């Protein structure tokens, strides 16, 4: 499964329209390229419909939210829906401020998202309109553990059924689910949390994978989550060998993504289906 998804990305080089945040925009563009896609980072409201029209998918990321880009997200999302293009939503910091809360819920109401990716606190906020968050990070009380895993899987499936979206909840353990099926993914390394924007990077990769596999958003999303986690593992191991630090880790993750193969992705996946 992962082999075929990855091969489609490499074959088609999906063009990904990405409205993301200025903290991570360069890294997001680079991981899309490293994954086999091609990024367009356009957020001017007067051109987003044109840009979305020529792209395979749209990524909306709320990282550095402002009034100008909120309009761009709404306009681009509606256009992508009209065209039948996959739309990926990253509700960064949902639950942290009134503006983020209002924007996230309004976007969820007006745009049909193929995939929603966030940490457990962000996804819980979207599902319930409440909860706790620690800035852009998950609240400690929400963290996914082996003990809470079945509960989180059931929650993700319910929210997927309600929204019609694939729900990707990422953290130490990742859960990617639609209404009927969930992938539990245990790839990745804790050191990845020491780099700004690994979640944003993953959302960009999902945009590329879903853009090339629009008929199979669940498998595409799970494959992207495995790819990012697996490359994080490889990058961490190499960082230790080099006696380097997190600045090098960031570069090594991008390197690993660019050197990833379909066979390597399939063999390296640590996945359980629930």
Quaternary status: single chain
User: Which percent range describes the beta-strand content?
Assistant: 5-15%
- Lateral strand order in the biggest sheet: 2-1-3-4-5-8-9-10-11
The 3D shape can be described as globular
Structure notes:
With 274 residues, this protein is an alpha/beta fold. The protein contains 11 helices and 11 strands. It is 53% helix and 15% strand. The strands form 2 sheets. Strands 2-1-3-4-5-8-9-10-11 form a 9-stranded mixed β-sheet, sandwiched between helices. It has a two-stranded antiparallel ribbon with strand order 6-7. Helix 2 (25-34) packs across helix 8 and helix 8 crosses helix 9. The longest helix is centred in the last third of the chain and has 26 residues, at 217-242.
Q: Helices, strands, pairings?
A:
Elements: H1 2-12, E1 15-19, H2 25-34, E2 38-40, H3 48-54, E3 57-61, H4 67-83, E4 87-90, H5 98-110, E5 115-118, H6 120-128, E6 133-134, E7 137-138, H7 149-163, E8 166-169, E9 174-177, E10 182-185, H8 198-212, H9 217-242, H10 246-259, H11 262-268, E11 271-273
Give the gist of this structure:
Helices cover 53% and strands 15% of the residues. The protein is an alpha/beta fold and 274 residues long. It has a single domain (2-273), classed as 3-Layer(aba) Sandwich (UDP-N-acetylmuramoyl-L-alanine:D-glutamate ligase), CATH 3.40.1190.20.
